[in-house]
Amino acid sequence: MSAARTWRQFGDGPLSRITSRVYILLVVELLLLLTTLPGLLPLLLLGRDPSNLPLAALFLVPLGPAISAALYALHHQRTDLTDLRPASVFWRGYRANLSGVLRVWVPTLLWLTVLALNLAYRGAVGLPGWWTVPLVLLGVGVTLCAANALVITSLFDFRTRDVLRLAVHFLVRTPGVTVGNALLVAAAAGITAVLSEAVLAIVGSVAVLALLRVSDPMVRLTREEFTR
């Protein structure tokens, strides 16, 4: 009993909690890379020409379920060193959320692809220059709604239409979450533009953890007001 109690105290100490969090992030990062590899490798080889946008969207399809599973794992995994199972929690979340996430993620990619193509070829399709602003704003709105929807559908069991309603609702209800997600999206876009998608993938688990922490107020309100 004494040895078990000593191990339990070790597992609950500050250094142990830090160690366990680092371990969880590393495991989740490896699983993120593994599950996104089928799309990441061809994406890295794809030229940055607007004509490749539909292909880029196709290669990004595996990213949605992978982010969802990472959100699930980081949210549910305990930091006790005596009970670390981030890989099993990740795969449980991946299987449980796969269909729901794809119902949110695939339409989001389609919307963003259409908007990006219209921006890239606005002259060819006859759009006046002032259309740039509303198209960009619409793209930002779709992205922020998708971020909310991704978190909600990863952590809760709602119908897709309810997930989308809540995602839009919390854009206004939790402005701190909206601004935080906008900054995360801007940072991800900046890293991708200046460096590459590979750099962003390497810090994927940290980015997902940041998304989870930024979304804490929305998650708390969802649990308190919509799950009872």
Task: Please give a structural write-up.
The protein is built from twelve helices and no strands. With 228 residues, it is mainly α. It has one domain. About 2% of the residues have low confidence.
User: How far is it from the N-terminal to the C-terminal residue, by CA?
Assistant: 40 Å
Q: Which percent band covers the strand fraction?
A: under 5%
Residue runs with pLDDT of under 50 for 5 or more positions: 6-10
Return the average pLDDT rounded to an integer: 87
Alpha-beta content class: mainly alpha
- Total beta-strand segments: 0
Q: Over all CA atoms, what is the radius of gyration? A: 19 Å
Number of individual domains = 1
Major sheet summary line? none
Level of helix content?
A: over 70%
The count of helical stretches stands at 12
Order of helices and strands: HHHHHHHHHHHH
| Backbone shape | globular
